[in-house]
Amino acid sequence: MGPGALANVLAALRLPTSPNLLIGLEVSDDAAVYQINADTAIVQTVDFFPPIVDDPYTFGAIAAANALSDIYAMGAQPILALAVAAFPDDLATEILTAILQGGADKVAEAGAALAGGHTVTDREPKYGLCVTGTVHPARITPKAGAQPGDRLLLTKPLGTGLITTAIKNDRGDPAHLDAAIASMLRLNRRAAELSQRVAIHSATDITGFGLLGHAAEIARNSGVGMRFSVSRLPALPGARAYAAAGIFPGGLERNLTFLEQDGYVRYAVTLEHADRLLLYDPQTSGGLFFAAPPAAAAELQGIFAAEGEDLWEIGEVTAEVGITITA
To answer: Domain 151-326: which topology?
Structure first.
């Protein structure tokens, strides 16, 4: 579901709540947070989708990594997962087993337990996880709290939607898909652990709404704006070329239309169309995105470099409302 349609649905809901519910649907965040006691809150999320790659085991592992990412984005550690799956009756059982095993192995890699789940019959396969994590209430990294002057940091390159769409249309390079799969399979666990060493004001993970969609949620929740430089954006091999060729997923256009209304996003006149598309590309199991004070951002870049982990500074938080894109 696109961001505009989802916002309309949620606006009409009347939901029960609790004083212990620290983060719910009143803000756009990656997961719900419920406080158990002074030292512990549970973090809950669910995510599932149709196959993004042909290999069933790899699909299951990517879907699991994507679901686990919301827990890491909240500053939490996953502890328990349940599988959510829909399969057609005529799908070979070995395919189902491979999908479920791929997910189970990725949960194990995250140090969590997989304890069951639920399945339904559907013509199109779908798989994902409902994940529970824990976090100290003081260590939550929400989609709020960003402050003017904060630096914006990203842990994975962009372009998974562009690349997988090109492959589906028989116009993609298999080597580009291999690089995208390797990125999608990589857990955000290590990046989340390293980020806990400094004071992060806000965090999210980049998934279906694209870089600007999820960045805008932080900006709006925080009452700030953001400025990005496209020359700093990391992109997977082939992603910009597919964008320039007009090969992009339908979700990208929904993301773009939603954010461009009312002039919320402002572009430099020299910005290339391919770079504009990259900003809105729906990611699967994308990277973590941080807003951190300048000193903390510099320290974090040093920590990531020392650990051999990727981290790019791609912009800054501004006092002016809206998002500005420069070359």
So the answer is: Phosphoribosyl-aminoimidazole Synthetase; Chain A, domain 2 (3.90.650)
